Each structure stands twice: as structure tokens, then as C-alpha cells.
Queue: 2 jobs
Job 1
Amino acid sequence: MKATVNEDLCIGCESCVDICPDVFEMQDEFVVCRFDDEIPPEFEEACREAAESCPVEAIAIED
Ligand code: SF4
């Protein structure tokens, strides 16, 4: 599974960081995914939850 954050959409609310800090981190005023490639399986569930929590649907999940 991969996750990408669309910086044009992200409003920096940090909801995803609160839910899944292992995968998402703030960089300046936007969030980035820590993993360019596959997200470790143990983080997948929280990562999906974080994507669903995003108020502007800026997080794309690719299975
Ligand atoms: S939840 Fe969405 S809008 Fe909020 S910081 Fe994360 S990616 Fe950005």
C-alpha cells in the first residue's frame, strides 16, 4: 500500500498526523507521507483511518 498527500489540497489541519504519526508528518505548513514506497503493514490500518479523516480528501491510498 502507498499513500500520497496532495499538497494543493492539504490545509494543514494535522488530523492525519494525530491519527497516524508513523506515516504522516508536518513539513512547513503541509503534511507529507514518510514513505515513498510501500507503507509497512503494521501502519496500514491507521493510515487508512487517517485518509478517511482528512476533511479535504487530500490523501490518496493506492493498494
Ligand atoms: S488530514 Fe488532510 S488536510 Fe489535514 S493535514 Fe492531513 S492531509 Fe492535510
Job 2
Amino acid sequence: MTPPPIATRESVREERFHKVWNQDLQEVFADVARYYDRANAVATLGAIGWLERRFIASIPVRAGERVLDVCAGTNAIGLALLAREPSLDVQAIDRSAQMQATGRQRAEARGRRIGSTIGDVHTLPFPDAHFDVVTLQFASRHLLVRQVFSEVLRVLKPGGRFHHCDMLRPANRIVASLYYAYLRPCLAFTAYAFGSGRAAQECRRYFIDALKMFYSADELSVVLAETGFSEVAGSAVLGGTVGFHRAVKPLP
Ligand SMILES: C[S@@+](CC[C@H](N)C(=O)[O-])C[C@H]1O[C@@H](n2cnc3c(N)ncnc32)[C@H](O)[C@@H]1O
């Protein structure tokens, strides 16, 4: 069966998750900020470190380049890129002041500086053609991706590179069923182990539903190409549960 066009799927996602995205997630990340990095390590059975290293290794950066990390959370990506190339100008944007506060502490502890903007990434408060590189990790499931990707395209310089990594909907139905069956107890255990607050407890179901309605690796490549990116390349690991994409803003 042919899936509905991306525009339709985006509208359905928005209608279904509007309240969670605009209210509940703010509370979730305010709560989760204090244990986010440790909880990720537990929930992924340690795979998060491998995934992040793989993502970072796939991002070429040159001295002095301007980098924007969208939905930067606790600054994992910005700090890893600065460790590789300390002369980068790294800016972070995230809607959660608490996640960014943790990110700021992590940066200070390493003697690094990352500019921080608190705001909704559906409208990026940066000029056109400003950044050489934009990154976005582990957040697109919570976003209207077409709108955010359009904004990413706008703020990139011509020839600038977009690097994306997220949990995806496995294209294989059997893998998908097994994966959701694993996530249910896994999220329950992580929430219990870290003493999650009410909002995070109540969003456990949402986290699985958001994946079910999200895109596979191939579909995300289509979204990027439809947005106007060129040289789109995507790959999936762990049975299609996580995908890496890169794309370029075309030269005029
Ligand atoms: C799962 S965390 C990922 C953080 C980081 N990129 C990482 O890889 O560790 C998702 C982040 O997206 C942010 N976020 C979700 N929706 C957002 C929105 N509409 N605008 C800005 N940030 C948003 C949350 O506040 C949270 O910090």
C-alpha cells in the first residue's frame, strides 16, 4: 500500500501530538534534564555512546566554521565537535531552559563556550545563509520536520551541510513490533530507576506512538529532498531503529 504524502502525514502527526509537543514535553525535559544523559545510557543499554561517536565521526568540520546544533539539549553534539575542532563557533538552540542549563554546566566543566538560545526551533531566530553546518540529533520525532528542515535550509550557507540523527520507525514490521515491545518495559524501568516526575511517566506511551507515526530512513531522505536539499544520503543501523542522514544546501 502506498503511504500518504509527507504533507498529509505531517498534518496527522501535528493533530495527534499538538498538545504533547506544545505543553507536556516542556515539563518532561524540565524534569529529565538532571538525569538525561545517564538515562539515555541505561535505556539504550550503552549503545548511545556508540551512536553518538558514529554520528560525530560522520560530520566533517573545518577550523573556524559556524555550527548550529538544533534541539541541542545538554550540548552533547556541540561539545563533541568542539573536542575535535576547538576553533568552531558553536550555537545551540533548544526550548528547554533546564536542558540548556545542564548543557551550559557541561560546557563550563570542559572549559568550552557554546552560545545558547532558548526558543522553538520551528522558527530559527538566525539570519539566512549564516551557518556552515547544522546538526539535529534525537529530536525530530517531536517536531514538524518539514517546517524545521525548511528553517535549517534557510539558515545554512549555500553548500552548507545538514547532519541529522534520530530514532526512526523501522521499515520492517516484525522488527518494529519487537522494538516497541522492548521499549515499553525499558521506558517503564528507566522512569522508575531515575524517579521520573508525573509528566515523564505520562509521556511513556507518547514516545512509542511518536515513533510509530514517524518516518523510516528512506522516508526521511524523501522529506529532505522534498524540502530542497541536495546530495541527500541516509543510512540506518540497529534494524532501522536509528538513522543517520546528511544533506547539502544547493549552490545558487
Ligand atoms: C531527546 S532530547 C535530544 C537532545 C540532544 N540533541 C541530544 O542528542 O542529546 C530532545 C530535545 O529537543 C528539545 N525540543 C523538543 N521540541 C522542541 C522545539 N519545538 N523547539 C526547541 N527544542 C525542542 C527538547 O527540549 C530536548 O532538549
